Amino acid sequence: MGLTGFGNALLLTGNQRYVDVWRQMIEKVNANQKVVDGRVMYPHMYGDHGWYHYTLEPYSHGALEVYYWSMDRQDLKRLPKDGWIGFLEGNNPEYPTQALQKDFANIRARTQGMSQDPTTPDTRLSDDPLSYNPATVHTLVELMLGGLPPGNRGGPLHILIRKIAVPAYQKMLLPWWKD
Predict the structure, then answer these.
(1) For residues 61 and 25, is the Cβ–Cβ distance under 8 A?
(2) Looking at the domain assignment, is residue 152 inside a domain?
(3) Which of 61, 87, 131, 167 could pair with 95 in a Cys bridge, judged by C-beta atoms 3.0 to 4.6 Å apart?
(4) pLDDT digits over 9-58, tens only?
(5) In-domain check, residue 47
(6) Rg (CA), the chain
(7) With contact defined as beta carbons under 8 Å apart, do 142 and 133 qualify?
(8) Does a structural domain hold residue 88?
């Protein structure tokens, strides 16, 4: 939820200091790394007894948003080189097809789950129908708008309005593209 607040503040003010705060927080969490059996481990949780839940992956919650909001190439180092970012960087041309196929499989599974739900209307939890919600827009927001999907936490849609300069987008969406 904190990340949404920083994103809202950025949208309202245009002040990159809000992005800087989140970037610095990611760096501070990862600065608490430790070496276990010769491998660098990064904390992901903090509690009464300090840092815990160490994994091989650096803490990166909000790293995609930090990069997207700043467009600072230095922020790319915190992001995986596959998926949407790999596609944008020209390294994953199959991403659109793979991501949409995954979304269609998800829609089919959730629709099937709805039809096989054994609960009755009077016993079904009305406050949490999301386990069967077939609405799947994550990939469409990435591919069609070039933006960050807002998720289900009520955050605003972040899209950068600019001429699409990524060749993969030009080829996929705008076959008539002329520079």
Answers:
(1) no
(2) no
(3) 87
(4) 999 999 999 999 999 999 999 999 999 999 999 999 999 999 999 999 99
(5) yes
(6) 20
(7) no
(8) no
Q: For 96-115, how does the pLDDT look when each residue is reduced to its tens digit (9 = 90+)?
A: 999 999 999 999 999 999 88
User: Structure tokens of 144?
Assistant: 């069609």
Cα dist from 124 to 112, 118, 163, whole Å: 17, 9, 47
Is 60 contained in some domain?
yes
Tokens of 179: 């520079």
- Rounded to two decimals, the pTM is 0.81
CA–CA dist 111, 14 (Å, integer): 41
How many independent structural domains does the chain possess?
1
Which of these, 88, 73, 80, 87, lies nearest to 58 by C-alpha position? 80
Tokens representing residue 52 in the block: 């815990």
Angle, nearest 10°, between helix axes 2-13 and 17-30? 150
Cα–Cα distances in angstroms (integers) from residue 99 to residues 79, 104, 136, in the given order? 18, 9, 11
**């972040």: which residue's tokens?**
158
